[in-house]
Structure formats: C-alpha cells, structure tokens
Amino acid sequence: MEVDSALRRYNVINCESGWHCDRSLLTASEAADVNRADHRRNAENCQSGWGECDRSKLTAPQARQTAFAEHRRNIAACKAGEDTCDYSSLTPQETKMFIAAEHKCNYTACLKDHGYCDLSRLTAEEIRSIQADPSSSH
Questions:
Q1: Which of 22, 46, 90, 116 maximizes the CB count within 10 A of its CB?
Q2: What is d(CA 60, CA 45) in angstroms, rounded to the nearest whole number?
Q3: What's CA 70's distance to the chain center, in Å?
Q4: pTM over 0.70
C-alpha cells in the first residue's frame, strides 16, 4: 500500500512539474492542480523567454506582461549590440536613439582609429574631420 501511495505521489509530482506522467491516474483535484501548474509554467516560460510558450493559453494580463518582458529583452539586446536585436519591434523613438548611439560609436571608432570603423556610414563632414585630425591615421 505504501509503495502504491508513493508511486501515485511520484506521478502527481511529475505531472505538476511538467514531466512525463500518467494523467489518467490523477483525481479531479490533482488534475486541477496540474492544470494550474501547467498554466503557471507556460506563463513563466512566455515571460522569461525560456522553454515552451503557448501564447494562446495566456490571459490578457499575462499576454501584456509577456509583451512587456519581450520588449525589455529586445532593448537590452539592442543596447548590447547583439544579433538578436529586432529594430522592427522598437518604438520610433527607441529606434532613433539606437541609430544615433551606433552612429556615434562608429564615428568615435573612426576618429580614434580604434575598434570597428565603417567610413561609409559617416557624413562627408565627419570624414573631413577625421582626415583633418593629425592623430588619425585615415
């Protein structure tokens, strides 16, 4: 009897944890708990960007929280210059801010001849200022 009870509890824990289990062995109360755990885990996965995420199962507030979290992660990726940065999901103001920051970094790299410099992204005036700078080797 104790073994059956332990196996039953083990099955419930597996179901609640999202692992392989036999849901047909759950009581109605256990099944409801497992469904709540599934919903909570899905919402956490969607918000964190980790694991499987089924957006169709999110409540309206969870969908808003997920969108906000994704936007924050995208801004962080853009600030860090990561390939995962998606400019199309930025607001126009954010896009202008990042483009201006990238331009400034590029100009500084060209001016100081340090780091990646793309002269094709500079204005004619910026190129002239670099060429006029005696410390620049361009």
A1: 46
A2: 16
A3: 5
A4: no
Q: How far apart are CA 68 and CA 77, in angstroms?
A: 14
- Tracing tokens 């169709």 back to the chain, one arrives at 56
Name residue 111's amino acid.
L
Q: Which DSSP symbol is given to 134?
A: T
Count of residues for the chain? 138
Amino acid at 84: T
Tell me the two tokens of residue 92: 């126009």
